[in-house]
Amino acid sequence: MGTISKAKKEVRSRYAKRTQEASEAPGRPSSWMLDKLGGVFTIKPSSGPHKQGESLPIALFLRNRLKYALNMTEVERICKQRLIKIDGKLRTDPRFPTGFMDVIQIEKTGENFRIIYDVKGRFIVHRITAAEAKYKLCRVREVKTGPKNVPFLYTSDGRTIRFPDPAVRVHDSVQVDIATGKIQDTIRFETGNLCMITGGANSGRVGTIMSRERHQGSFDIVHVKDSNGHVFATRLGYVFVIGKGNKPYISLPKGKGIKLTIAEERDKRLTGK
Known about the structure:
single chain
């Protein structure tokens, strides 16, 4: 009996060690777009500025999206050469979690990317110019006052910015200069401004904020209207303001965040052929 229990313990310890470095594929976020036949295990993101379910590890971006590597070993070699910058900082951890609005730079190839959703809520490869890669948008999570009455705010990507503009409120977006970490501009969360949805069934859709319903003890609901005139509703926590009026501060991916019906998608494919 003693030998059996010892063998069981060894198997469990081996399995636990393996699962520390990998997460089971059936539990991975759909935004990663992993194929069903790719095996049971996939890459587990390291701890970082984004939640596990709202992030994309660098390894998946380089291997599965850009096809710059065939396997994890090649990804590690690329990262260890200090070629990848995320938000202006060199990152050598292939499991480092990138998230919505993060800027990825590969100086050796001169490429710049912004992590962003398509209308089906999947992370896509969105190439941007070098000028646009100098800044990013961050959503304000909390505004507080610290020791010695120093005001500061928390952003959606884990930043703490001291002495912000007193007009900045929770749910607003701030344009942050990547090199200095300073706020360049503020986009208010108000009716008429452009926003992108970052969660739920409407992930990746872009539209204008129409109204906000307040529900005490529950989730506030925001009504959004896209450029085709379709109105949809989502939670307040999923709304990320990206522009003033109809002018976005960032370049939008193909389709401009407009979700098509199944029939419209079919017609578009047929006309494309």
